[in-house]
Amino acid sequence: MSSARPRVVLGVGAGIAAYKVCELLRRLTESGHDVHVVPTADALRFVGEPTWAALSGNPVSSQVWDGVAGVPHVRLGQEADLVFVAPATADLLAKAAHGLAGDLLTNTLLTARCPVVFAPAMHTEMWEHPATRANVETLRSRGAVVIDPASGRLTGKDTGPGRLPDPAELFEVARHVLARGADGRDLAGRHVVVSAGGTREPIDPVRFIGNRSSGLQGYALARTAAARGARVTLVAANVALPDPAGVRVMPVGSAAEMREAVLQAAADADAVVMAAAVADFRPAEYRGSKIKKSEDAGPEPIRLSRNADILAELGRVRGPGQVIVGFAAETDDVLENGRAKLARKGSDLLVVNQVGEDLTFGRPDNAAVVLGADGSRTDVPRGAKEALAETVWDLVAARLEPRGASDGSPPV
């Protein structure tokens, strides 16, 4: 990435979701990026040139014939630090996959040597069509980041996968890809599973046993993995956060539900990171109606039963070459307890952090020591949870076997 203001080419496809890209553009410009908007000609039917020019502070063009003396069809791609296409329509994905260059945006895609991100948005049938799926795989195989669309309300009465992710989450993808540069897709072609949040074990229809986990660390892990090219499944327990762009989210409530979801998702995963705070115990008996307090007697004791140890089970049933990462939230004797837990669980890495009422839970920052089963130790100073997430994925990527190595086929 250049030392001056990061230069972003924002390609805009001809989809109704183009109006959402105005918010992405605003976030990029307000955070110091030099953004040049390159819409297709039909995209200007949805949002006009004056809007893009006013928000970016730069001239807008969609044709190779505009400003020919400056050779924009070559220069824009050559000088960009990032090309981000949103919404990426089925038509745009097809043209990009086949190297067509009929307008300024497709020419820019052919000349770009920087990271390229596509954020598709279209109707479900178009997204799931074999031609679109093949084009997406072609682009990913060439190093592009193609974000899976979100599920939700589309145009008209239709709902399903095909919705453009939230602009704030798209901005996070752009920021992470820019920070890592052209070599930042070390998880491309990998499937990773991340758990996040805190489980709740119901006592009665009103009360539950829970914990303080907000899910922020798990969501940071999911977001950074997606930006590094991975297919991400996020098992989220009681989290009130927007879905990270390009991430499949599986909501759960209790430890039993999390176990079922994680084991299902982990069946074909290259790595599993258990960042969730999973309750060790649950009430042995669930009361079908609210427990009433008595004015004359104290509360009845709540008998507890032990929940399944998901991390230990993952260690026992792991697939060939699968990397398992656990988290240990400790209040005292942090490293001693962490080393003991690493030995018990059978995981490859254990992220050990000190927690408390004003530490880690619900905060945007974290500090940790990552212990390895190979005896390694990586200290992560207090900083943004995204920084810890990047370190975790660095350590995971270094432990992943080359593709095909675990089944005897040649590495790819």
Automatic annotation (TrEMBL):
Pathway: Cofactor biosynthesis; coenzyme A biosynthesis; CoA from (R)-pantothenate: step 3/5; Cofactor biosynthesis; coenzyme A biosynthesis; CoA from (R)-pantothenate: step 2/5. Its cofactor is FMN; Mg(2+). It catalyses: N-[(R)-4-phosphopantothenoyl]-L-cysteine + H(+) = (R)-4'-phosphopantetheine + CO2; (R)-4'-phosphopantothenate + L-cysteine + CTP = N-[(R)-4-phosphopantothenoyl]-L-cysteine + CMP + diphosphate + H(+). In the C-terminal section; belongs to the PPC synthetase family. In the N-terminal section; belongs to the HFCD (homo-oligomeric flavin containing Cys decarboxylase) superfamily. NCBIfam families: coaBC_dfp (TIGR00521). GO terms for molecular function: phosphopantothenate--cysteine ligase activity; phosphopantothenoylcysteine decarboxylase activity. This is Coenzyme A biosynthesis bifunctional protein CoaBC. Residues 187-398 form the DNA/pantothenate metabolism flavoprotein C-terminal domain. The gene is coaBC. Keywords: Decarboxylase, Flavoprotein, FMN, Ligase, Lyase, Magnesium, Metal-binding, Multifunctional enzyme. Catalyzes two sequential steps in the biosynthesis of coenzyme A. In the first step cysteine is conjugated to 4'-phosphopantothenate to form 4-phosphopantothenoylcysteine. In the second step the latter compound is decarboxylated to form 4'-phosphopantotheine. Catalyzes two steps in the biosynthesis of coenzyme A. In the first step cysteine is conjugated to 4'-phosphopantothenate to form 4-phosphopantothenoylcysteine, in the latter compound is decarboxylated to form 4'-phosphopantotheine. It comes from the Bacteria. Residues 1-191 are annotated as: Phosphopantothenoylcysteine decarboxylase. InterPro entries: CoaB-like_sf, CoaBC, DNA/pantothenate-metab_flavo_C, Flavin_trans-like, Flavoprotein. Residues 192-412 are annotated as: Phosphopantothenate--cysteine ligase. Its EC number is 4.1.1.36, 6.3.2.5. CTP binds at D280, K290, F327, K341, K345. Residues 7-170 form the Flavoprotein domain. Binds 1 FMN per subunit. The keyword Magnesium applies.
